[in-house]
Write a structure and sequence with these properties.
about 5% helix, 5 strands, mainly beta
């Protein structure tokens, strides 16, 4: 199950996502966002909306049917809000891979960073995610 630490620094190819009104509303409903109750117009996506942008790093195979995957942490830093209707291009980079042994056995900690840029190639957000991977 060890994940090759040579993947540190590896990146996904750029992938572009559209921030659609339908997608934002579906996300807000699923997360029971209180802004839906305000009755006001929804112009921006919630801060955690980029979790819906799924991008894979070649060679980093995290298979939930063979591994126990635990979401450890998620953090976003923004230069501005995500606007409904815009297109965001994302690249994911493997920032770190560490092996640890705990009370219940070996685990691998994978830290990835996602950068999102707009159509003018201006940065919009950076996301940092920590996953804990264990054998099933």
């Amino acid at each position: 199950m060890p994940i090759d630490s040579n993947l540190i620094g590896a990146s996904s190819p750029p992938q572009t996502f559209e921030v659609t009104r339908e997608g934002v509303l579906r996300f807000m409903e699923a997360t029971e966002d209180p802004a839906l109750q305000s009755g006001g117009a929804i112009e921006y996506a919630p801060p955690t909306f980029p979790t819906t942008f799924r991008t894979r790093v070649p060679g980093l195979e995290l298979d939930g049917s063979r591994m126990q995957l635990i979401h450890g942490e998620q953090q976003y830093t923004y230069t501005r809000k995500l606007r409904i209707g815009e297109k965001i291009t994302c690249v994911v980079r493997v920032a770190d891979i560490r092996e640890r042994t705990g009370k219940s056995g070996a685990m691998t900690i994978v830290v990835s960073e996602t950068t999102g840029t707009d159509e003018q190639q201006q940065p919009v957000f950076t996301g940092r995610s920590t996953s804990i991977v264990r054998e099933k």
